[in-house]
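Sharing a chain and its predicted structure for anyone who wants a worked example. Both blocks are below, sequence first, tokens second.
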Amino acid sequence: MKNLSIIANISLSIFFLSIFARYRYVSGHNHYYPDYEKTDMSKYTGRINFSDTEYYDILRQTGLGKAAVNSLKCRPDFADILIRFQSNMFKPVRYAQAGYFFATRRQYATDSFCNAVSAYELAPVENGYVLVTKSSQTLGIRNGHAALVVDAANGTILEAGPYGMSSHLSDISRWRNYPTMIMLRLKAAETQKNTSLINNLINDALNNLINIPYSLLPHKQNVFANIPSSNCSHLIWAAFMRQGIDIAPNGGFIITPRDIALSDMFEPVQLYGVNPDDIWSF
């Protein structure tokens, strides 16, 4: 019995040490700094047409995807906007962590006095855009968080969580506190098939997806009926699924923010603090 007790204690110690090691690794890799040099954004002054290579260059330099570039390129200060977003992309950011629920912690950008601050500027936002952050972890596992833009004009998003709180509306501005952010939109091919898709999505979400009880592990139930429980990523998946679009067709029993971030149904609008070539590798 003594030997079994020793083995049990050793196993338990290894378990908690592995969690601690994983936690330290994930925490230390919460914000991506470009490992390439800045390029001169003024070369795009007065331009409205870009090649795929140039869109890719702008994405890597500024975090702005093709959709964001196209919404900004006709502005007279377009080059200045690119330089500003590039500065945000490359500048150092401080961040701290706070307890959220049980062993879950979230990261947030801070000033030198550990006060929460906005870390970056948001690209123009539209209804139906999806926000994902990697800046949340549980027991050293990066679970992340997700939200849906339901009123872009007023900066209103729909999200679920934390534990104990039903799905609710909140302000998009607090997403600027996260040291990582992925803004996505449905690929144009999907919205071209159904021009009323986004309006239907938003109306349904506002009428049927608020005040749903939170669950850590909701499964892919029949989302066309009343949804008994949900979490942040499941809620986003359900919103699109109710419009006939499965944004995570290869997902398993549950949907995660990672599934959404890597979904082939979306294209990036803006990236911040993540590697444009590998947005969720850990």
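Comments welcome. Residues 2-28 form the longest helix (27 residues).
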